[in-house]
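Hello Y.,

Per our agreement to keep a running log of every chain we model this quarter, I'm adding this entry. I've kept the format consistent with earlier entries: sequence first, then predicted structure.
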Amino acid sequence: GGQPRNVQPFSDEDASIETMSHCSGFSDPASFTEDGPEVDEEATQEDLEYKLKGFIDLTLDKSAKTRQAALESLKSAFSSKILYEFIMERRMTLTDSIERCIKKGKSDEQRAAAGLACLLCVQMGSGIESEEIFKTLGPVLKKIVCDGTASIQARQACATCLGICCFIVTDDITELYSTMECLENIFTKAYQRDRDTNGVPSTHNTVLHVSALLAWTLLLTICPVNEVKKKIEMHLHKLPSLLSCDDLNMRIAAGETLALLFELARETDADFFYEDMELLTEKLRALATDGNKHRAKVDKRKQRSVFRDILRAVEERDFPTEMVKFGPERMYIDCWVKKQTYDTFKEILGSGMQYHLQSNDFLRNVFELGPPVMLDAATLKTMKISRFERHLYNSAAFKARTKARSKCRDKRADVGEFF
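Predicted structure for the entry above:
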Protein backbone atom coordinates (compact mmCIF):
# COMPACT_ATOMS: atom_id res chain seq x y z
CA GLY A 1 0.00 0.00 0.00
CA GLY A 2 0.92 3.65 -0.23
CA GLN A 3 2.25 3.42 -3.79
CA PRO A 4 0.71 6.04 -6.10
CA ARG A 5 -1.58 4.53 -8.70
CA ASN A 6 -1.49 5.48 -12.32
CA VAL A 7 -4.62 7.67 -12.53
CA GLN A 8 -5.86 8.44 -16.02
CA PRO A 9 -7.42 11.91 -15.63
CA PHE A 10 -10.83 12.86 -16.98
CA SER A 11 -10.05 14.43 -20.34
CA ASP A 12 -11.77 16.19 -23.22
CA GLU A 13 -11.86 12.81 -24.94
CA ASP A 14 -13.93 11.41 -22.07
CA ALA A 15 -16.19 14.44 -22.19
CA SER A 16 -16.82 13.85 -25.86
CA ILE A 17 -17.53 10.12 -25.47
CA GLU A 18 -21.19 10.85 -25.97
CA THR A 19 -20.72 14.26 -27.50
CA MET A 20 -21.02 15.46 -23.91
CA SER A 21 -24.34 13.65 -23.66
CA HIS A 22 -25.46 15.85 -26.59
CA CYS A 23 -24.33 18.94 -24.66
CA SER A 24 -21.36 20.05 -26.68
CA GLY A 25 -23.79 20.11 -29.55
CA PHE A 26 -25.88 22.55 -27.53
CA SER A 27 -22.98 24.93 -27.01
CA ASP A 28 -21.82 24.80 -30.62
CA PRO A 29 -24.27 23.90 -33.39
CA ALA A 30 -21.35 23.52 -35.78
CA SER A 31 -20.11 20.53 -33.78
CA PHE A 32 -22.74 18.34 -35.47
CA THR A 33 -21.40 16.82 -38.66
CA GLU A 34 -23.74 16.28 -41.57
CA ASP A 35 -23.06 12.56 -41.86
CA GLY A 36 -21.54 11.67 -38.50
CA PRO A 37 -21.91 8.15 -37.10
CA GLU A 38 -24.64 7.50 -34.58
CA VAL A 39 -23.46 7.28 -30.98
CA ASP A 40 -24.81 4.75 -28.49
CA GLU A 41 -25.48 7.28 -25.74
CA GLU A 42 -26.56 4.72 -23.15
CA ALA A 43 -23.35 2.69 -23.51
CA THR A 44 -21.08 5.73 -23.44
CA GLN A 45 -22.91 7.11 -20.37
CA GLU A 46 -22.26 3.78 -18.62
CA ASP A 47 -18.57 3.97 -19.58
CA LEU A 48 -18.35 7.49 -18.21
CA GLU A 49 -20.07 6.60 -14.93
CA TYR A 50 -17.78 3.59 -14.53
CA LYS A 51 -14.77 5.90 -14.85
CA LEU A 52 -16.21 8.41 -12.38
CA LYS A 53 -16.90 5.64 -9.83
CA GLY A 54 -13.23 4.72 -10.09
CA PHE A 55 -12.18 8.33 -9.42
CA ILE A 56 -14.46 8.49 -6.37
CA ASP A 57 -12.82 5.33 -5.00
CA LEU A 58 -9.36 6.83 -5.62
CA THR A 59 -10.15 9.87 -3.43
CA LEU A 60 -9.62 7.44 -0.52
CA ASP A 61 -6.24 6.19 -1.77
CA LYS A 62 -3.20 6.27 0.55
CA SER A 63 -1.19 8.26 -1.97
CA ALA A 64 -1.78 12.04 -1.81
CA LYS A 65 -0.80 12.37 -5.46
CA THR A 66 -3.42 9.81 -6.50
CA ARG A 67 -6.12 11.46 -4.37
CA GLN A 68 -5.37 14.87 -5.87
CA ALA A 69 -5.43 13.52 -9.44
CA ALA A 70 -8.80 11.85 -8.75
CA LEU A 71 -10.22 15.11 -7.32
CA GLU A 72 -9.04 17.07 -10.37
CA SER A 73 -10.60 14.50 -12.72
CA LEU A 74 -13.92 14.72 -10.89
CA LYS A 75 -13.74 18.52 -11.10
CA SER A 76 -13.27 18.33 -14.88
CA ALA A 77 -16.27 16.03 -15.22
CA PHE A 78 -18.54 18.07 -12.94
CA SER A 79 -17.72 21.34 -14.71
CA SER A 80 -18.36 19.96 -18.20
CA LYS A 81 -21.48 17.80 -17.68
CA ILE A 82 -24.73 17.72 -15.72
CA LEU A 83 -24.50 14.60 -13.56
CA TYR A 84 -27.35 15.21 -11.11
CA GLU A 85 -28.67 11.65 -10.82
CA PHE A 86 -25.21 10.09 -10.64
CA ILE A 87 -24.16 12.53 -7.88
CA MET A 88 -27.46 12.24 -5.99
CA GLU A 89 -26.81 8.54 -5.40
CA ARG A 90 -23.26 9.19 -4.15
CA ARG A 91 -23.49 12.62 -2.52
CA MET A 92 -22.70 11.37 1.00
CA THR A 93 -19.67 9.41 -0.22
CA LEU A 94 -18.45 12.45 -2.16
CA THR A 95 -19.04 14.74 0.83
CA ASP A 96 -17.11 12.42 3.14
CA SER A 97 -14.21 12.22 0.67
CA ILE A 98 -14.06 16.02 0.29
CA GLU A 99 -14.22 16.51 4.06
CA ARG A 100 -11.38 14.03 4.63
CA CYS A 101 -9.20 15.61 1.92
CA ILE A 102 -9.71 19.13 3.29
CA LYS A 103 -9.02 18.05 6.87
CA LYS A 104 -6.04 15.79 6.30
CA GLY A 105 -4.60 16.81 2.93
CA LYS A 106 -1.85 19.29 2.14
CA SER A 107 -2.20 22.57 0.20
CA ASP A 108 -2.83 21.31 -3.36
CA GLU A 109 -5.14 18.52 -2.26
CA GLN A 110 -7.14 20.93 -0.08
CA ARG A 111 -7.52 23.34 -3.00
CA ALA A 112 -8.72 20.56 -5.32
CA ALA A 113 -11.19 19.31 -2.68
CA ALA A 114 -12.57 22.83 -2.07
CA GLY A 115 -13.02 23.30 -5.83
CA LEU A 116 -14.87 19.98 -6.07
CA ALA A 117 -17.12 21.01 -3.15
CA CYS A 118 -18.15 24.15 -5.13
CA LEU A 119 -18.98 22.08 -8.20
CA LEU A 120 -20.86 19.53 -6.11
CA CYS A 121 -23.19 22.29 -4.84
CA VAL A 122 -23.50 23.82 -8.34
CA GLN A 123 -24.61 20.40 -9.62
CA MET A 124 -27.08 19.79 -6.80
CA GLY A 125 -28.56 23.30 -6.78
CA SER A 126 -30.41 24.92 -3.90
CA GLY A 127 -32.16 21.94 -2.36
CA ILE A 128 -32.18 19.96 0.89
CA GLU A 129 -29.33 17.75 -0.35
CA SER A 130 -27.06 20.78 -0.84
CA GLU A 131 -27.97 22.06 2.61
CA GLU A 132 -26.84 18.74 4.08
CA ILE A 133 -23.56 19.00 2.15
CA PHE A 134 -23.00 22.55 3.45
CA LYS A 135 -23.85 21.58 7.03
CA THR A 136 -21.05 19.00 6.86
CA LEU A 137 -18.46 21.05 4.94
CA GLY A 138 -19.24 24.59 6.17
CA PRO A 139 -17.56 24.26 9.60
CA VAL A 140 -14.52 22.54 8.04
CA LEU A 141 -14.14 25.32 5.45
CA LYS A 142 -14.45 28.05 8.10
CA LYS A 143 -11.82 26.35 10.23
CA ILE A 144 -9.29 26.27 7.36
CA VAL A 145 -10.08 29.90 6.35
CA CYS A 146 -9.37 31.12 9.89
CA ASP A 147 -6.35 28.82 10.47
CA GLY A 148 -3.21 30.96 10.31
CA THR A 149 -1.02 27.85 10.09
CA ALA A 150 -2.74 26.50 6.92
CA SER A 151 -1.28 27.36 3.51
CA ILE A 152 -2.47 30.64 1.95
CA GLN A 153 -3.57 28.82 -1.23
CA ALA A 154 -5.72 26.36 0.75
CA ARG A 155 -7.28 29.19 2.78
CA GLN A 156 -7.93 31.14 -0.43
CA ALA A 157 -9.70 28.17 -2.08
CA CYS A 158 -11.75 27.51 1.06
CA ALA A 159 -12.81 31.18 1.30
CA THR A 160 -14.08 31.09 -2.30
CA CYS A 161 -15.81 27.74 -1.71
CA LEU A 162 -17.43 29.00 1.50
CA GLY A 163 -18.91 32.03 -0.29
CA ILE A 164 -20.20 30.07 -3.31
CA CYS A 165 -21.69 27.17 -1.33
CA CYS A 166 -23.40 29.57 1.08
CA PHE A 167 -24.78 31.57 -1.87
CA ILE A 168 -26.22 28.40 -3.40
CA VAL A 169 -27.71 26.59 -0.45
CA THR A 170 -28.48 28.79 2.52
CA ASP A 171 -32.02 29.91 3.33
CA ASP A 172 -30.97 30.45 6.94
CA ILE A 173 -30.27 34.17 7.42
CA THR A 174 -28.17 33.56 10.53
CA GLU A 175 -25.90 31.19 8.57
CA LEU A 176 -25.55 33.81 5.84
CA TYR A 177 -24.53 36.49 8.36
CA SER A 178 -22.18 34.10 10.14
CA THR A 179 -20.41 33.22 6.87
CA MET A 180 -20.12 36.90 5.90
CA GLU A 181 -18.64 37.70 9.31
CA CYS A 182 -16.05 34.94 8.87
CA LEU A 183 -15.03 36.40 5.48
CA GLU A 184 -15.09 39.97 6.86
CA ASN A 185 -12.64 39.00 9.57
CA ILE A 186 -10.21 38.02 6.80
CA PHE A 187 -10.37 40.85 4.26
CA THR A 188 -10.72 43.70 6.79
CA LYS A 189 -7.17 42.89 7.90
CA ALA A 190 -6.12 44.36 4.54
CA TYR A 191 -7.36 47.79 5.73
CA GLN A 192 -4.62 48.04 8.34
CA ARG A 193 -2.24 45.46 6.88
CA ASP A 194 -0.43 47.71 4.43
CA ARG A 195 2.96 47.69 6.15
CA ASP A 196 4.79 45.22 8.35
CA THR A 197 7.21 46.02 11.20
CA ASN A 198 10.04 46.98 8.79
CA GLY A 199 7.87 49.46 6.91
CA VAL A 200 7.93 47.25 3.80
CA PRO A 201 4.63 46.54 1.99
CA SER A 202 3.40 43.06 2.94
CA THR A 203 1.69 41.06 0.16
CA HIS A 204 1.89 37.58 1.70
CA ASN A 205 -1.85 37.36 2.50
CA THR A 206 -3.14 39.51 -0.37
CA VAL A 207 -4.48 36.58 -2.45
CA LEU A 208 -6.45 35.41 0.58
CA HIS A 209 -7.83 38.92 1.21
CA VAL A 210 -8.89 39.23 -2.45
CA SER A 211 -10.76 35.89 -2.41
CA ALA A 212 -12.45 36.69 0.92
CA LEU A 213 -13.53 40.14 -0.34
CA LEU A 214 -15.00 38.74 -3.58
CA ALA A 215 -16.81 35.91 -1.75
CA TRP A 216 -18.22 38.44 0.76
CA THR A 217 -19.37 40.73 -2.07
CA LEU A 218 -21.19 37.80 -3.72
CA LEU A 219 -23.10 37.10 -0.49
CA LEU A 220 -23.93 40.80 -0.06
CA THR A 221 -25.97 40.61 -3.28
CA ILE A 222 -28.50 38.27 -1.59
CA CYS A 223 -28.74 40.14 1.74
CA PRO A 224 -31.91 41.91 2.92
CA VAL A 225 -32.02 45.69 2.34
CA ASN A 226 -31.43 46.63 5.99
CA GLU A 227 -28.29 44.47 6.16
CA VAL A 228 -27.04 45.91 2.86
CA LYS A 229 -27.36 49.44 4.32
CA LYS A 230 -25.39 48.42 7.42
CA LYS A 231 -22.58 46.87 5.37
CA ILE A 232 -22.39 49.92 3.09
CA GLU A 233 -22.05 52.25 6.10
CA MET A 234 -19.38 49.96 7.56
CA HIS A 235 -17.19 49.50 4.47
CA LEU A 236 -17.76 52.27 1.94
CA HIS A 237 -15.31 54.65 3.65
CA LYS A 238 -12.67 51.97 4.22
CA LEU A 239 -12.57 50.20 0.84
CA PRO A 240 -10.94 53.14 -1.04
CA SER A 241 -7.77 52.55 1.00
CA LEU A 242 -7.32 49.23 -0.87
CA LEU A 243 -7.11 51.09 -4.19
CA SER A 244 -3.53 51.98 -3.25
CA CYS A 245 -2.50 48.33 -2.79
CA ASP A 246 0.54 47.13 -4.76
CA ASP A 247 -1.37 44.07 -5.99
CA LEU A 248 -3.37 44.60 -9.20
CA ASN A 249 -6.00 41.98 -8.30
CA MET A 250 -6.66 43.67 -4.97
CA ARG A 251 -7.04 47.08 -6.64
CA ILE A 252 -9.50 45.63 -9.15
CA ALA A 253 -11.44 43.64 -6.51
CA ALA A 254 -11.74 46.76 -4.30
CA GLY A 255 -12.80 48.91 -7.27
CA GLU A 256 -15.47 46.47 -8.47
CA THR A 257 -16.78 46.05 -4.91
CA LEU A 258 -17.06 49.85 -4.61
CA ALA A 259 -19.00 50.01 -7.88
CA LEU A 260 -21.35 47.29 -6.63
CA LEU A 261 -21.83 49.03 -3.26
CA PHE A 262 -22.72 52.30 -5.00
CA GLU A 263 -25.19 50.43 -7.22
CA LEU A 264 -26.89 48.78 -4.21
CA ALA A 265 -26.86 52.04 -2.21
CA ARG A 266 -28.59 53.95 -5.03
CA GLU A 267 -31.16 51.17 -5.48
CA THR A 268 -32.09 51.29 -1.79
CA ASP A 269 -31.97 55.09 -1.54
CA ALA A 270 -32.52 57.28 -4.61
CA ASP A 271 -31.03 60.29 -2.75
CA PHE A 272 -27.89 58.45 -1.62
CA PHE A 273 -25.00 60.88 -1.06
CA TYR A 274 -21.33 60.01 -0.53
CA GLU A 275 -19.46 62.88 1.13
CA ASP A 276 -15.97 61.91 -0.10
CA MET A 277 -17.07 61.55 -3.72
CA GLU A 278 -14.55 64.06 -5.11
CA LEU A 279 -11.57 62.33 -3.46
CA LEU A 280 -12.80 58.88 -4.57
CA THR A 281 -13.34 59.90 -8.21
CA GLU A 282 -9.84 61.43 -8.27
CA LYS A 283 -8.40 58.08 -7.14
CA LEU A 284 -10.45 56.16 -9.68
CA ARG A 285 -9.53 58.56 -12.48
CA ALA A 286 -5.83 58.21 -11.62
CA LEU A 287 -6.13 54.40 -11.87
CA ALA A 288 -8.12 54.67 -15.13
CA THR A 289 -5.31 56.74 -16.68
CA ASP A 290 -2.33 55.18 -14.88
CA GLY A 291 0.96 55.50 -16.76
CA ASN A 292 3.28 54.25 -14.01
CA LYS A 293 6.46 53.02 -15.72
CA HIS A 294 7.17 50.51 -12.94
CA ARG A 295 4.08 48.45 -13.83
CA ALA A 296 3.85 45.88 -16.61
CA LYS A 297 2.10 47.00 -19.80
CA VAL A 298 -0.42 44.17 -19.60
CA ASP A 299 -1.31 45.11 -16.00
CA LYS A 300 -1.69 48.78 -16.89
CA ARG A 301 -3.92 47.97 -19.86
CA LYS A 302 -6.16 45.72 -17.78
CA GLN A 303 -6.32 48.21 -14.90
CA ARG A 304 -7.19 51.17 -17.14
CA SER A 305 -9.94 49.19 -18.89
CA VAL A 306 -11.56 48.04 -15.63
CA PHE A 307 -11.31 51.38 -13.83
CA ARG A 308 -12.81 53.32 -16.74
CA ASP A 309 -15.97 51.23 -16.21
CA ILE A 310 -15.79 51.62 -12.42
CA LEU A 311 -15.38 55.42 -12.72
CA ARG A 312 -18.41 55.63 -15.02
CA ALA A 313 -20.44 53.55 -12.54
CA VAL A 314 -19.53 55.69 -9.52
CA GLU A 315 -19.63 59.07 -11.26
CA GLU A 316 -22.33 58.67 -13.93
CA ARG A 317 -24.32 55.65 -12.67
CA ASP A 318 -23.58 53.94 -15.98
CA PHE A 319 -22.81 50.27 -16.71
CA PRO A 320 -21.38 48.99 -20.02
CA THR A 321 -23.79 46.18 -20.95
CA GLU A 322 -22.16 42.92 -22.02
CA MET A 323 -23.76 40.12 -24.03
CA VAL A 324 -23.02 36.46 -23.34
CA LYS A 325 -23.86 33.91 -26.05
CA PHE A 326 -24.52 30.26 -25.27
CA GLY A 327 -25.93 28.05 -28.00
CA PRO A 328 -29.00 29.72 -29.52
CA GLU A 329 -29.54 31.90 -26.43
CA ARG A 330 -28.27 35.31 -25.32
CA MET A 331 -27.90 36.85 -21.87
CA TYR A 332 -27.27 40.52 -21.16
CA ILE A 333 -25.16 41.50 -18.15
CA ASP A 334 -26.46 44.97 -17.37
CA CYS A 335 -25.48 45.66 -13.76
CA TRP A 336 -22.61 45.08 -11.32
CA VAL A 337 -24.57 42.55 -9.24
CA LYS A 338 -25.10 40.35 -12.30
CA LYS A 339 -21.48 40.82 -13.40
CA GLN A 340 -20.14 39.80 -9.97
CA THR A 341 -22.33 36.68 -9.96
CA TYR A 342 -21.43 35.72 -13.53
CA ASP A 343 -17.67 36.24 -12.98
CA THR A 344 -17.74 34.10 -9.81
CA PHE A 345 -19.38 31.09 -11.47
CA LYS A 346 -17.30 31.48 -14.63
CA GLU A 347 -14.16 31.25 -12.48
CA ILE A 348 -15.41 27.95 -11.02
CA LEU A 349 -16.87 26.37 -14.17
CA GLY A 350 -14.32 27.64 -16.69
CA SER A 351 -15.08 26.44 -20.22
CA GLY A 352 -18.16 24.59 -18.88
CA MET A 353 -19.95 27.88 -18.06
CA GLN A 354 -21.81 28.05 -21.38
CA TYR A 355 -23.06 24.48 -21.09
CA HIS A 356 -24.24 25.01 -17.49
CA LEU A 357 -26.03 28.22 -18.49
CA GLN A 358 -27.99 26.15 -21.01
CA SER A 359 -28.69 23.08 -18.89
CA ASN A 360 -28.23 23.80 -15.16
CA ASP A 361 -31.60 24.66 -13.56
CA PHE A 362 -29.98 26.41 -10.60
CA LEU A 363 -27.85 28.77 -12.73
CA ARG A 364 -30.77 29.48 -15.05
CA ASN A 365 -32.83 30.49 -12.00
CA VAL A 366 -30.03 32.75 -10.72
CA PHE A 367 -29.84 34.58 -14.05
CA GLU A 368 -33.63 34.41 -14.66
CA LEU A 369 -33.29 32.48 -17.93
CA GLY A 370 -36.34 30.27 -17.47
CA PRO A 371 -36.45 26.50 -18.14
CA PRO A 372 -33.72 24.98 -20.37
CA VAL A 373 -34.31 25.30 -24.12
CA MET A 374 -34.17 21.74 -25.42
CA LEU A 375 -33.08 21.43 -29.05
CA ASP A 376 -32.71 18.11 -30.84
CA ALA A 377 -29.97 17.24 -33.32
CA ALA A 378 -32.24 17.88 -36.33
CA THR A 379 -33.01 21.45 -35.19
CA LEU A 380 -29.35 22.16 -34.53
CA LYS A 381 -28.47 20.84 -38.00
CA THR A 382 -30.84 23.36 -39.59
CA MET A 383 -29.12 26.13 -37.65
CA LYS A 384 -25.72 25.17 -39.01
CA ILE A 385 -24.15 27.04 -41.92
CA SER A 386 -22.74 24.66 -44.53
CA ARG A 387 -18.99 24.48 -45.00
CA PHE A 388 -19.28 25.96 -48.53
CA GLU A 389 -21.35 28.94 -47.35
CA ARG A 390 -18.90 29.54 -44.51
CA HIS A 391 -16.01 29.46 -47.02
CA LEU A 392 -17.74 32.04 -49.27
CA TYR A 393 -18.47 34.31 -46.33
CA ASN A 394 -14.85 34.14 -45.07
CA SER A 395 -13.48 34.81 -48.57
CA ALA A 396 -15.67 37.88 -49.01
CA ALA A 397 -14.74 39.20 -45.57
CA PHE A 398 -11.03 38.63 -46.28
CA LYS A 399 -11.20 40.50 -49.61
CA ALA A 400 -13.05 43.44 -48.06
CA ARG A 401 -10.58 43.62 -45.18
CA THR A 402 -7.57 43.46 -47.55
CA LYS A 403 -9.01 46.22 -49.75
CA ALA A 404 -9.65 48.48 -46.73
CA ARG A 405 -6.15 47.96 -45.37
CA SER A 406 -4.57 48.51 -48.78
CA LYS A 407 -6.20 51.93 -49.01
CA CYS A 408 -4.78 52.92 -45.62
CA ARG A 409 -1.31 51.62 -46.48
CA ASP A 410 -1.09 53.12 -49.99
CA LYS A 411 1.44 55.96 -49.84
CA ARG A 412 -0.31 57.60 -52.80
CA ALA A 413 -3.54 57.89 -50.84
CA ASP A 414 -4.73 61.42 -50.24
CA VAL A 415 -3.77 62.21 -46.65
CA GLY A 416 -4.54 65.94 -46.73
CA GLU A 417 -2.43 69.03 -47.15
CA PHE A 418 0.07 70.30 -44.63
CA PHE A 419 0.86 73.98 -44.26
